[in-house]
Amino acid sequence: MPDLLSVKNLKIEATSYPPGEPPKTVTLVENVSFDVQKGKVLGLIGESGAGKSTIGLSALAYGRGGAAITGGQVLLNGKDILTLGRDGVRTIRGCKVCYVAQSAAAAFNPAHKLGDQVIEAALRHKIMSRPEAEKRALYLFKVLGLPNPETFGDRYPHQVSGGQLQRAMTAMALCPNPELIVFDEPTTALDVTTQIDVLAAIKHAIEETHTAALYITHDLAVVAQISDDIMVLRHGKTVEYGTTKQIIEAPNQDYTRALVSVRQTKREEARDQSNTLLNIEHVSAGYANGFKVLHDVSMHLPKGQTLAIVGESGSGKSTLARVITGLLPPQEGKITFDGKELPRALSGRTKDELRRVQMIYQMADTAMNPRQTVRDIIGRPISFYYGLHGAKKTERVRQLLDQIEMGDRFLDRYPAELSGGQKQRVAIARALAAKPELILCDEPTSALDPLVAEGILNLLMKLQEETAVSYVFITHDIAIVRAIADSVAVMHRGKLVRFGPKSKVLSPPFDDYTDLLLKSVPEMELGWLEKVLTTRRMESAGN
Amino acid sequence: MRLSSIPFSAWVGIAGITLALFCALFAPWIAPYGERDVVGDIWLPMGGDFLLGTDNLGRDLLSRLIFGARTTIFVALAATVISFSLGMLLSFTAAVTGGFVDQLFSRFNDLMMAIPTLIFALVVLAVLPQQLWILILVMAVLDSTRVFRIGRAVALDVAVMEFVEAARLRGEGTSWIIFREILPNTLSPLLAEFGLRFAFSILFLSTLSFLGLGIQPPAADWGGMVKDNKDGIIFGISAALVPGGAIAGLAICVNLVVDWLMKRTSSLKGGRGDA
User: Fold this and answer.
1) Residue among A363, A357, A325 at smallest CA distance from A445
2) Which residues contact A467 (CB under 8 A, 6 or more apart)?
3) Residue A131: its pLDDT value, please?
4) Closest Cα to residue A502, out of A518, A479, A486?
5) For residue A365, which residues of chain B lie inside 8 Å, CB to CB?
6) Does the distance separating the beta carbons of A18 and B171 come in below 8 Å?
7) Who has greater pLDDT, A189 or B230?
8) A382 falls within a domain
9) How far apart (Å, rounded) are the C-alpha atoms in residues B196 and B213?
10) B199, B91, B202, B92: which is closest to B136 by C-alpha?
11) Which of the residues A33, A414, B139, B215 could staple to B79 if both were Cys, CB 3.0 to 4.6 A apart?
12) So where are chain B's domains?
């Protein structure tokens, strides 16, 4: 069978213009070759900066943001699309090759109806007449399992959920009957429970329409469910390329093995859970417009241990953290910290009460002032809470940098000069600088690549052993919960569904929601998707 | 910072500003004639004893230009600096505090902006005694309403960032949040605005002088000189264009320097990346 898409020795370069320096040319992708046959799916996997999106876009002969394809060939049906020129490429994009972006919410035009946007490419390329295109759109809506397919096209993007929007985007890509679709992390921004439905819909649609696909993701477990072949990328180079079965079950390279075995760390839960540090009793909270987010939530956390709060977006888990910090005073209920009731609002708390509870954010980029150096960022809590200055302060900053496994040389760097993982480490050091008893971690690893995230989790565990600090760890990732938690609280739509020691919460019998949540976590196993869809008891809410 | 990293355009700006400041500081020593001395015929052409010619009363244009730099730069700079200090302090306080304070400041600002600036200035200056510091203050207060608008907009953007929330959780006071967390992140747009406002200040001062409420004759200022010599244009005499050119030149120089500063403050190292 001839190859539909054949990429040979692809080289992609970008030129950057640092202020005050001569322009630099950076090689993003080097010597990458792969083939995709009709109706097959190739998974491209790698961490951020691996060049996977850049490679995916090369199938459309497109270089994003100054990146230019400088070498190699991209053969579509045996014809090199890189030599087609601007008009030639136009006959391919949105016609023979289509693209599904990561954030469907940002990719749809909010001013037009979904139906019109879905069929636009097919009409523009004069592939179909309007009634034909509408018929095909309806068919695709049905295949993708969208609710009320007859009227779905009449809605505007803001009227449907994120998971539906992502499926609408898939319909848009499938509508002109393309030969190849490039999926760029289509489920990354979705909740696990929604991700599984979208994944199943995409898989079904690909099989139904016999379209080939490039599936780009950083989650090996996801790609294992959908692709026939997998290519592992790192720093713009191929690490390993083989069938899905071989990559998952018998990886050849160390890096692939690390990806496959990531998050194998498991922690025994603490036996004694009696010495309570934080006690949340019957807390209800909401925003000023009268919308209630939390309903009668109670949980507690022993000293020196970790409480994981899991739930999908909108479950109120981040709101609970805001209530604990005092940013959002609760309407009912009380929060006791170390035997004493905490004042409800931030302004009522003493400096010492503030010091004892620190916070780590999801996005380290926005959680640190970009105009302050690492020295200032970590040093401020030291001088603010402990009044240390000059050499003593620097000494303590060095000590903290040591603790987070970063060296002196980072002292005078700005956050923009750090990698994602390093930023999160500095944010941890800032929290530690106050010598707190409780650190609230709001999804601190969900924006990071899996291997980097694992490093951060190990660091947090090490720090807990050293300083006996307690964590409230907010996450949507059950794998993390398994790895680090002592007790677990499952939240759903502002209510506490399940709370207790990890061993009890994560073992049967389950309530329906916990069952769904646990089963939705992709596993590194072939055929997992089909198995879950037949055994789960509850449809996910956000589909 | 290395001197070699300053781009050519910024050097041009720095040179222009330095020249203007030098003239302002050492006016009595470098001006060939006195500020108020009638030294020749009216509207003499350039060249000869008078490098730039003479004005409508026969005073040396170059000397008046040099003396005029004093008042023009001093008044415009003072007014702009005061208006920025005032506008930024109030707007940042409004953005950080929010709620009632924000409403109070913002609505009062709207009220001030609803009155046409020039008419407001005319009324106030006509009532108050004609002194230089009153002129500067009136210009500053009127200009600060514009600064308040942009200051509040950019500060609101930064005030919702998580690092500001982190500072609040730490228990930091409002002044720390304003000066240490927000101010450094809003410098770029505010610097750009500063360059623009400074040029506007010079023009506004000129307008006021033109209407007789700014710098009082016979003291020289560039705007006033344009007014004095404007009738000459009809007769093909270029005397009015010289101070006009000086105003334009200074405004451009200030903006060249500001452009460079803006690039520096928004650069990746210590910048907000995309700023």
Assistant:
1) A363
2) A432, A435
3) 92
4) A486
5) 273
6) no
7) B230
8) no
9) 23
10) B202
11) B139
12) 8-265
Q: Starting at the edge strand that comes first in sequence, how are the strands of the sheet with A97-100 ordered?
A: A97-100, A180-184, A212-217, A41-45, A229-234, A237-243
Residue A377's identity, in one-letter code, is I
Higher-confidence residue of A48 and B139: namely: B139
Q: Give the gyration radius of chain B's Cα atoms.
A: 22
The answer to whether the beta carbons of residues B52 and B62 sit under 8 Å apart is yes
Cα–Cα distance list, A474 to A214, A315, A361, A421, A448 (Å):
33, 11, 10, 18, 15
Q: Is residue A439 one of the residues assigned to a domain?
A: yes
Give 10-residue mean pLDDT values along chain A (543 residues).
82 74 79 88 84 85 78 86 84 87 82 90 89 91 85 86 84 89 84 82 85 88 87 88 87 83 66 82 82 88 91 83 90 89 88 92 87 90 90 91 86 84 91 92 84 87 90 87 89 89 84 84 78 72 48
Closest-CA residue of A relative to B187 is A371
**DSSP secondary structure of B77-135:** HHHHHHHHHHHHHHHHHHHHH-HHHHHHHHHHHHHHHHS-HHHHHHHHHHHS---HHHH
CB contact B272 to A (< 8 Å): yes
Determine, yes or no, domain membership for A519.
no
Is position A491 within any domain?
Answer: yes
SS3 A308: strand
Distance CA A421, CA A418 (A): 8
C-alpha–C-alpha distance, residues A452 and A65, integer Å: 26
Q: Using the beta-carbon criterion (under 8 Å), do A361 and B263 form an inter-chain contact?
A: no
Where in the sequence is the domain holding A482, given as residue range(s)?
A: 276-373+419-507
Burial class of A328 by CB neighbour count within 10 A (0 to 12, 13 to 18, 19+)? buried
CATH of the domain at A473: 3.40.50.300
All residues of chain A having their beta carbon less than 8 Å from the beta carbon of residue B184 are 369, 371-372
Q: What is the DSSP letter of B183?
A: H
The alpha helices in A468-527, defined as continuous H runs, are: 478-484, 502-505, 512-520
3-state secondary structure of B58: coil
Q: Kindly report the CA angle at A268 between A266 and A270, in degrees rounded to 5?
A: 145
In chain A, how many domains are there? Answer: 1
In A385-542, DSSP assigns E strands to 438-442, 470-475, 487-492, 495-501
Query: Is A367 within 8 Å of B166 when comparing Cβ atoms?
Result: yes
Structure tokens at A71: 């070498």
Interface test with B, best of A21, A365, A369, A380 (most B CBs within 10 A): A369
Look at residue B262 and give its three-state secondary structure: helix
Which residue in chain A has the smallest CA separation from B160?
A366
Identify any residues that bridge with A472 across adjacent strands, giving them in sequence order.
Answer: A307, A440
Q: Look up the ipTM and state it.
A: 0.74
- Asked if residues A432 and A401 have their Cβ atoms less than 8 Å apart, the reply is no
| C-beta atoms surrounding B8 within 10 Å | 9
Taking the CA of residue B263 and the nearest CA in chain A, the distance in Å comes to 8
Residue A46 and residue A52 in contact, taking contact as beta carbons nearer than 8 Å? yes
Residue A543, pLDDT score: 47
Distances (CA, A) of A170 to A17, A57, A133, A163, A543: 36, 16, 15, 11, 14
CA–CA distance, A527 with B233 (Å, rounded to integer): 88
Q: B8-265: what fold?
A: MetI-like fold (1.10.3720)
Q: A81: which DSSP letter?
A: G
Q: What does the pLDDT read at residue B272?
A: 40
Q: Which of A254, A285, A200 is nearest to A522 (CA)?
A: A200
Nearest residue to A205 via CA among A183, A224, A222, A188: A183
- Closest by CA to A218, choosing from A349, A347, A44, is A44
- Do β-strands A276-286 and A306-310 pair in parallel, antiparallel, or remain unpaired? unpaired
Residue with tokens 């190990």: A458
Residues of A in contact with B271 (CB under 8 A): 370-371, 414, 416
